[in-house]
């Protein structure tokens, strides 16, 4: 049976996924809010530069920054506002949260997209090369990816800044740039630092998938049937290998969101990650909640997309859910 | 001199090792230049420079709520106060002169013809409004403590302001040379009460620069005020862009590559690569910052002055200071060190020299511990996990304590939690010892510190130190506007609190850090000149 031309199994499965995603989003906002609320201490010392304060001004400052409002009042107010599409006002800078987030979404999204392209091109490309290539090529790729996989993003950032920005002067040391071409130029090193270990991982997965497809019976049959190597590779190897590659790619992109914080801080980018760090430090509830919400939604949407695409691509998964 | 290539590699290696390497490679080159107060004059005009704020983006430019170094570095280019602090000490600013008809009254005579950046003339009404807001308990000012004895602030005429106190207060007039004395336009600030000092609302002051743009997370841009009232000091740089790079290695690379022209107060881990930089000059300046080991009111072994003295004797201040800061730090005997002697220097010097110099004497320390009954309890030491200097010092304290028979257990907290825990009595009293690396004087007067920390009931008297004499001397000093008499009282406090009672163990006085590349020069090198004077006016092109 089909609904609007889509098999019923897919519809059921997709709606289950969707409901799970919404529940996960609501739950995560509650957990984040609660976690920030429970962190001991207040940001006044940090903001006042550790200056001694009279009790009266301390109380006035706490009130000004809404530090004494009860938990559920704050959470429900926030939830209500957010459902109306209003992220509220930053408790520290007093700027509308939407204004703080707006200019930064672009930077973070562009950074993620560039990192994804890098993972796709360099990761899948080198993996496929290792899969079909000679022993020597394979060994080379394996060696390079082993090194890449071991490099954490903050070290990659320092390394890239030192070599490509400072010594060679090919790229700027910091900043996000203005206007698309300039932004792309500014984000090359951050995207590379962000993607480096995931790219290596994708490369490994691709190599493995290509190898296992090459050894499978249907590929052997295709070769025996006398199909051209290029056709065999495209239609029989890569198409079947693409499912695990895509799954890992999706999860890696979702995983990069957590790494954004590190890379944006290292490169002095005005993205969502650096905003999150700064806001947690000053206990700026409104901003932390909004950024966390966006990041959680992006994470869940990417995971959801991966699941749905897998469902669409692999008939066996559809059978199971029927 | 090392080649920039080698320096970069060292910097990279340092970051790669992150905290692990800080022990060796963050130690600055001991042969670095002497501490200075000014830098060669900035002569020529420049279109634009980029200046970094290593402590990050300011939270506010509202004069009652600018507390952190970043806030004040930017605010001092936009707004001015009645007085200012330069490397030459207190100087007139918006007040061309002031006098004290009696010791409970200050009268400020304002410059005529000072214009806010919207063209309106500054008058006594604006001054009264600006100071009264600091005092208003509902305004939530970071500076209200220093207005505690103010009973009235009134405009005598268009250019004269009279401040009356209920008792003599030796700190008040000095505090007018900080943000506490900042003057804003009353009309603008009241009309924009909610957004004043934010990116959206901006500020309205008399300073040499005007806020041009504030892009959250990216930069604050200020432009020269063409109609600046002080015609003797014209801005030389048309546009200054403040960036918010906090990561030390990124900041160093930015300075090396010339993308950033200068910065104050970067982490000490950046000092070594900048000392040998071919891109510009690192200046170490006199500062009022200090590093100490403080106690709490928890009770237990550290409540005994003999144990505190033993701990002080166990620490080799010169050795640890040199290891933490190299040439960018001096070991000190008490928080009343040389940079704080803005008056009575001879008296302060004598009192200071009577205190122990702080070379380790483990034998004497062990004896003191034994005589105190060798307390077996584990002392808890609180430190800031995000500050390598604090972590190294904490580890050193722990090791030295062990050597004299005291057990110390270290708790490290992330910066934000640490700063709260170390200032909150309930939290602080869960620890016996706290390593502080971020203390500094807003004004160079030992009384500033005694008033905040030593008297009974002082807001930052964390160890609940009670000495009737010290409390009385502190209160007396606050009421003593005659400087030599005040210095005499402070000398007595020094001997009692730091010579006999060991209220805290002051370790080092870190230098004020300043780097400017070869394009520019002129910024003041002393801490707190770039917080409380229009420092940007002295910056210009090298040629």
Q: What descriptive keywords fit this protein?
A:
heterodimer; A: 322 residues; mainly alpha; two-stranded antiparallel ribbon; B: 543 residues; alpha+beta; 21 strands
Folded structure, characterized:
The complex is a heterodimer of chains A (322) and B (543). Chain A has 14 helices and 2 strands; from the N terminus they run ββαααααααααααααα. By secondary structure, chain A is mostly helical. In chain A, helix 1 runs antiparallel to helix 13 (285-313). The relative contact order of chain A is 0.15. In chain B, helix 1 (4-17) packs antiparallel against helix 7 (248-257) and helix 11 packs parallel to helix 18 (483-500). The model of chain B is unreliable at 1-32 (pLDDT under 50). In chain B, 32% of the residues lie in helices and 22% in strands. Chain B has 543 residues and is of the alpha+beta class. The chains are: A mainly alpha (322), B alpha+beta (543). At the A-B interface, helix 2, helix 3, helix 5, helix 7 and helix 12 of A face helix 1, helix 3, helix 7 and helix 14 of B.
């Amino acid at each position: 049976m089909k609904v609007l031309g889509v098999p019923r199994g897919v519809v059921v499965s997709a709606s289950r996924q969707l409901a799970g995603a919404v529940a996960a989003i609501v739950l995560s906002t509650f957990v984040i809010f609660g976690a920030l609320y429970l962190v001991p201490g207040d940001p006044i010392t940090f903001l006042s530069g550790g200056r001694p304060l009279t009790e009266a001004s301390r109380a006035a400052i706490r009130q000004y920054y809404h530090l004494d409002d009860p938990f559920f009042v704050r959470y429900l107010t926030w939830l209500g506002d957010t459902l109306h599409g209003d992220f509220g006002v930053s408790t520290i800078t007093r700027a509308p949260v939407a204004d703080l987030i707006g200019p930064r979404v672009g930077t973070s999204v562009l950074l993620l997209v560039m990192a994804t392209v890098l993972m796709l091109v360099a990761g899948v490309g080198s993996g496929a090369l290792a899969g079909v290539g000679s022993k020597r090529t394979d060994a080379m790729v394996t060696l390079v990816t082993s090194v890449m996989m071991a490099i954490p993003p903050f070290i990659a950032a320092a390394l890239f800044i030192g070599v490509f920005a400072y010594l060679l002067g090919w790229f700027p040391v910091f900043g996000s740039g203005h206007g698309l071409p300039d932004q792309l130029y500014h984000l090359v090193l951050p995207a590379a630092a962000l993607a480096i270990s995931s790219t290596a991982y994708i490369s490994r997965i691709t190599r493995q998938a290509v190898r296992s497809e090459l050894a499978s019976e249907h590929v052997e049959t295709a070769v025996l049937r006398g199909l051209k190597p290029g056709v065999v590779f495209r239609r029989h190897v890569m198409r079947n290998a693409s499912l695990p590659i895509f799954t890992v790619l999706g999860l890696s992109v979702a995983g990069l969101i957590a790494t954004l914080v590190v890379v944006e801080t290292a490169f002095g980018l005005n993205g969502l990650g650096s905003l999150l760090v700064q806001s947690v430090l000053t206990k700026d509830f409104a901003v932390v909640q909004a950024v966390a919400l966006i990041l959680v939604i992006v994470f869940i949407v990417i995971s959801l997309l991966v699941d749905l695409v897998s469902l669409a691509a692999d008939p066996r998964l559809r059978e199971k859910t029927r | 001199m090392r080649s920039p290539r080698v320096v970069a590699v060292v910097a990279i290696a340092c970051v790669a090792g992150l905290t692990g390497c800080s022990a060796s490679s963050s130690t600055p080159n001991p042969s670095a230049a002497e501490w200075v107060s000014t830098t060669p004059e900035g002569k020529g005009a420049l279109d634009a420079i980029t200046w970094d704020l290593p402590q990050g983006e300011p939270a506010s430019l509202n004069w009652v709520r600018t507390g952190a170094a970043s806030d004040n570095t930017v605010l001092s280019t936009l707004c001015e106060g009645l007085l200012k602090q330069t490397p030459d000490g207190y100087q007139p600013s918006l007040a061309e002169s002031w006098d004290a008809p009696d010791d409970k009254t200050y009268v400020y005579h304002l410059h005529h013809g000072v214009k806010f950046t919207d063209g309106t003339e500054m008058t006594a009404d604006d001054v009264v409004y600006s100071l009264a807001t600091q005092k208003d308990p509902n305004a939530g000012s970071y500076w209200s403590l220093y207005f505690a004895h103010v009973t009235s602030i009134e405009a005598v005429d268009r250019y004269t302001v009279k401040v009356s106190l209920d008792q003599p207060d030796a700190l008040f007039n000095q505090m007018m040379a900080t943000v506490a004395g900042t003057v804003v336009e009353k009309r603008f600030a009241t009309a924009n009460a909610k957004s004043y000092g934010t990116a959206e609302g901006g500020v309205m002051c008399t300073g040499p620069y005007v806020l041009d743009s504030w892009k959250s997370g990216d930069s604050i841009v200020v432009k020269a005020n063409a109609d600046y009232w002080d015609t003797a000091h014209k801005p030389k740089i048309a546009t200054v862009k403040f960036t918010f790079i906090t990561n030390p290695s990124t900041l160093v690379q930015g300075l090396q590559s010339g993308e950033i022209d200068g910065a104050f107060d970067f982490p000490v881990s950046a000092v070594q690569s900048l000392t040998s930089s071919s891109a510009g000059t690192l200046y170490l300046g006199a500062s009022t910052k200090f590093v100490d080991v403080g106690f709490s009111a928890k009770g237990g072994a550290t409540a005994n002055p003999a144990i505190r003295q033993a701990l002080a004797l166990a620490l080799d201040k010169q050795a640890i200071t040199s290891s933490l800061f190299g040439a960018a730090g001096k070991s000190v005997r008490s928080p009343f060190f040389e940079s704080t002697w803005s008056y009575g220097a001879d008296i302060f010097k004598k009192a200071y020299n009577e205190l122990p110099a702080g070379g380790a004497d483990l034998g004497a320390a062990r004896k003191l511990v034994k005589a105190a009954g060798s307390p077996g309890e584990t002392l808890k030491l609180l430190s800031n996990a995000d500050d390598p200097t604090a972590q190294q010092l904490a580890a050193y304290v722990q090791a030295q304590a062990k050597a004299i028979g005291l057990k110390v257990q270290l708790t490290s907290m992330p910066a934000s939690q640490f700063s709260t825990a170390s200032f909150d009595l309930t939290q602080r009293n869960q620890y016996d010892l706290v390593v502080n690396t971020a203390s500094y004087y807003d004004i160079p007067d030992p009384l500033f510190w005694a008033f905040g920390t030593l008297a009974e009931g002082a807001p930052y008297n964390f160890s609940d130190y009670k000495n009737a004499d010290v409390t009385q001397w502190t209160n007396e000093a606050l009421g003593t506007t005659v400087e030599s008499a005040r210095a005499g009282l402070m000398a007595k406090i020094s001997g009692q609190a730091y010579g006999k009672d060991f209220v805290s163990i002051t370790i080092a006085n870190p230098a004020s850090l300043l780097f400017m590349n070869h394009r520019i020069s002129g910024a003041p090198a002393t801490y707190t000149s770039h917080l409380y004077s229009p420092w940007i006016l002295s910056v210009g092109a090298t040629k």
